Structure formats: C-alpha cells, structure tokens
Amino acid sequence: MRLDKYLKVTRLIKRRTVSNEACSAGRVLVNGNIGKPSLTVKEGDIIEIQFGTRTTKVEVINIQDTSKKDEAKELYKIL
C-alpha cells in the first residue's frame, strides 16, 4: 500500500492530500529514510512523522485498504 494512503487509512493524518504534502515536504521518515508518497509500506516498517515540534513514531502491524475508526488503531503500534 502507498505511504500516503496508509497514513490516511490509519488516521495518523486526516486527509490523503495532507499526508501526500507531508511526505513530499520530507516530514515523514520510513526506516530512517525520507518517505515519498508512492513508497510501498510493509508490515514491520517504522514510520516517523514530524508535526512541528512533535514527532510520532509508529510500527506498521497490519495493512488494510479500509478501516473503521475503532479498527484504525490496531493497524500500528506507537513506539
């Protein structure tokens, strides 16, 4: 699954266009490397998102095309 879509499905970022812009600006790292929006995300990847002064680091647990609000938090683990 594409990185920008994964961020939207897991609700780490609300909209796909916003996640696409964050990836393009270099504020999203995947396994320590800058993640482009089209990067393929796999289980076990470490995603680091920088929001201003706050940084969120998560590990990909599961990948689904869609998820409900309650199920979204089960797709990743906060580190």
UniProtKB/TrEMBL annotation:
One of its GO terms (biological process) is rescue of stalled ribosome. GO terms for molecular function: ribosomal large subunit binding; rRNA binding; tRNA binding. The keyword Protein biosynthesis applies. It holds the Pfam family S4. CDD domains: S4. Gene3D superfamilies: RNA-binding S4 domain. It comes from the Bacteria. Keywords: Protein biosynthesis, RNA-binding, rRNA-binding, Stress response, tRNA-binding. InterPro entries: RqcP, S4_RNA-bd, S4_RNA-bd_sf. Residues 1-62 form the RNA-binding S4 domain. Associates with stalled 50S ribosomal subunits. Binds to RqcH, 23S rRNA and the P-site tRNA. Does not require RqcH for association with 50S subunits. Key component of the ribosome quality control system (RQC), a ribosome-associated complex that mediates the extraction of incompletely synthesized nascent chains from stalled ribosomes and their subsequent degradation. RqcH recruits Ala-charged tRNA, and with RqcP directs the elongation of stalled nascent chains on 50S ribosomal subunits, leading to non-templated C-terminal alanine extensions (Ala tail). The Ala tail promotes nascent chain degradation. RqcP is associated with the translocation-like movement of the peptidyl-tRNA from the A-site into the P-site. Belongs to the RqcP family. This is RQC P-site tRNA stabilizing factor. It comes from Natranaerovirga pectinivora.
